[in-house]
Design a protein that fits this description.
The complex is a heterodimer of chains A (289) and B (268).
Chain A (H helix, E strand, L loop, with lengths): L4 E10 L7 E11 L4 E5 L6 H8 L7 E6 L2 E2 L4 H10 E4 L12 H5 L1 H5 L4 H14 L4 H4 L8 H13 L5 E5 L7 H18 L2 E6 L2 H7 L2 E4 L8 E2 L1 H5 L2 H6 L6 H11 L11 H18 L1
Parallel strand pairs in A: 3-8, 3-9, 6-7, 7-8
Antiparallel strand pairs in A: 1-2, 1-4, 4-5, 9-10
Helix pairs in contact in A: 5-7
Chain B lengths: L16 H4 L2 H17 L3 H18 L3 H8 L3 H14 L4 E5 L2 E4 H27 L2 H12 L9 H31 L9 H7 L1 H24 L18 H22 L3
Antiparallel strand pairs in B: 1-2
Helix pairs in contact in B: 2-6, 2-7, 2-11, 3-6, 3-11, 4-6, 5-6, 7-8, 8-10
Classes of the chains: A alpha/beta (289), B mainly alpha (268).
């Protein structure tokens, strides 16, 4: 299978030629398969926001290229414009971009820009609202009358309504309470499964990415030092900690247990896995006696 | 293309003698220099002023490229001034074309005018490049403080100014972010006729205004939490103090203006 989106030797330099020159990305090779659920992790200023803004052509590479479906997204102006509909990007705190009089109109902004007809727009708006768990009564309200969590879901629906093949979300749960965060992650999972879309989640909650993603991509100082399934990446615990990232609490507990000489696997990162590992370790010990 | 590249009011941190001058000295120096620019009138005086500017730029370590970049937005004004002066100054004609007559005096006048505007803008930019916005408003407040006796709200004005300056980068960043977010939903800010472009700004302006009001509200609360109650009896963390170098700089600038004035008077 070919990657749906790919960067080759992507380098980005901010404020070139001024005293504020800053290299945000350096020779980054990143790729995502169709239908894959990826999490990008890195501390503030590591270059993760710069990377995702390249994936839908909001930033132009200083050097290197970005390919969507095998073709350079910068080959023509029209292509860049079209790619933005195929690669949906939800920014951090997206509720601050709402501007229309009603929720319905705001969600339909993207589909309208795609030049779809009225029925199709209507279908997409209602479907997107359903994906994020907004009921029909909310659609006619002003987005500014909603609660923070609801506003955020409206903003996410505004991107989902374009039905992108790749959905990128930058810290979609930042500043939400645990139940609001869980709900949004569930909405994203629903979209991922129903549309078989590729999802790229940017986060710095290790628990969150360990639970949600199939593959983790670690960014540090504009490079990708590790990439792979959560278990493999979390095996680099000490290095991750040096980057200021850390590992899920469960992984830390199990690393400590192993250091104490208990025979448990190293690749544990969720509570469920921890339970199974503890039970099997206990069973083994019971058998020995 | 990015809004971040706007240089207006930008500050390039540094540690040159010019950076370390007292902001009041720099403001007074700038005013004296501008006065001198308007008193200058012939090659000699302009050459002296240009040499002084060159020395100050050299000492300040500000790149000449950065200064020239500041001139970009006024190219139209420069061309316009030059054209007007070339054609509308009476004097000895060089050649004429249809109803337009180019005079010797006109060409000279246009040349001086353009040089004057360029130097005017460059020296102003030099001030903002080498002085942090905070230092600049502190300096202004201190220079204007005699007006307090006339009940002019000097402190309030300077507070408004420093808050405004403080928020320019924040708002530019915010604008950039909202623009990107709406672009990600297919908004197009660069094409279409005037009406379409104006309409395309709505998705940008509405969120920007809302966030500006929200920020203003938060800032007011934060200031009240720290017991801000206006300028009365307020002390400063960084007090401005004139050092010998600052005094010398001011004296030098005023002397320069005086000398240029005298030279100009004798037609140099």
């Amino acid at each position: 299978m070919d990657p749906i989106i790919e960067t080759r030797q992507l380098t980005h330099v901010y404020s070139e030629g001024t005293p504020f020159r800053h290299v945000a990305l350096e020779g980054v090779d990143f790729s995502a398969m169709p239908g894959e659920y990826i999490a990008v992790i890195g501390r503030t200023g590591s270059g993760k926001s710069t990377l995702i803004q390249h994936l839908n052509g909001l930033l132009k590479p200083t050097s290197g290229e970005v390919l969507f479906d095998g073709g350079d997204i910068w080959s023509s102006k029209e292509r860049t414009h079209q790619v933005r509909f195929q690669v949906g990007l939800v920014f951090q705190y997206p509720e601050y971009q709402l501007f229309e009089e009603t929720v319905y109109q705001d969600i339909s902004f993207g589909p309208k820009n795609m030049g779809l007809d009225k029925e199709e727009i209507d279908r997409r708006v209602r479907q997107a609202a359903r994906f994020v768990g907004l009921d029909d009564g909310v659609l006619d309200k002003s987005p500014f009358d909603l609660s923070g969590g609801q506003k955020r879901r409206v903003a996410i629906a505004g991107v989902i309504a374009m039905e992108p093949q790749v959905l990128i979300l930058d810290e979609p749960t930042a500043g939400l309470d645990p139940s609001g965060a869980a709900q949004i992650l569930e909405n994203i999972r629903a979209y991922h499964q129903e549309k078989n879309a590729c999802v790229i989640l940017v986060s710095h909650s290790m628990e969150e990415v360990a639970r949600e993603a199939e593959r983790l991509v670690v960014i540090d100082h504009g490079h990708i030092p590790f990439s792979g399934p959560p278990a493999d990446v979390f095996a680099h615990g000490p290095e991750l900690e040096k980057m200021g990232l850390g590992v899920p609490a469960m992984t830390r507990v199990f690393a400590r247990l192993r250091a104490m000489g208990v025979d448990v696997p190293a690749s544990v990162y969720t509570v469920e896995q921890a339970r199974d590992a503890v039970l099997s370790a206990l069973a083994k010990r019971g058998g020995e006696r | 293309m990015a809004l971040k590249d706007i240089t207006l009011g930008q500050f390039f941190p540094g540690s040159s003698p010019i950076h370390r001058l007292d902001p009041r000295a720099k403001i007074v120096g700038l005013v004296a220099y501008i006065v001198a620019l308007f008193l200058a009138d012939w090659f000699v005086t302009y050459a002296v002023l240009l040499a002084v500017l060159a020395i100050v730029v050299k000492v300040s370590t500000v790149k000449v490229k950065a200064l020239l970049k500041g001139l970009k937005p006024v190219i139209f004004l420069l061309v316009f001034t030059a054209v007007l002066n070339i054609f509308y100054t009476p004097g000895t004609p060089i050649f004429s074309l249809w109803i337009f007559t180019v005079t010797y005096e006109g060409v000279l006048h246009a040349f001086f005018m353009v040089v004057r505007i360029m130097m005017l803008i460059s020296c102003t930019f030099l001030l903002t490049y080498t002085t942090s916005p905070l230092a600049l408003t502190d300096g202004l407040e201190s220079l204007l403080s005699p007006l307090k006796k006339l009940h002019a709200p000097v402190h309030e004005l300077s507070m408004i100014m420093s808050i405004a300056l403080r928020f320019i980068p924040t708002l530019i960043e915010e604008t950039d972010k909202i623009m990107s977010a709406q672009r990600a939903r297919g908004a197009d800010f660069d094409t279409g006729n005037l009406l379409q472009r104006a309409k395309a700004l709505i998705p940008l302006l509405v969120p920007l205004f809302i966030s500006a009001f929200r920020r203003a509200d938060e800032l007011a609360t934060a200031m009240e939490c720290r017991c801000y109650h206006g300028g009365e009896g307020r002390t400063r963390m960084n007090r401005l103090r004139f050092r010998p170098g600052d005094v010398m700089f001011i004296v030098g600038a005023v002397l320069l203006a005086a000398v240029i004035g005298v030279m100009g008077h004798f037609g140099l």
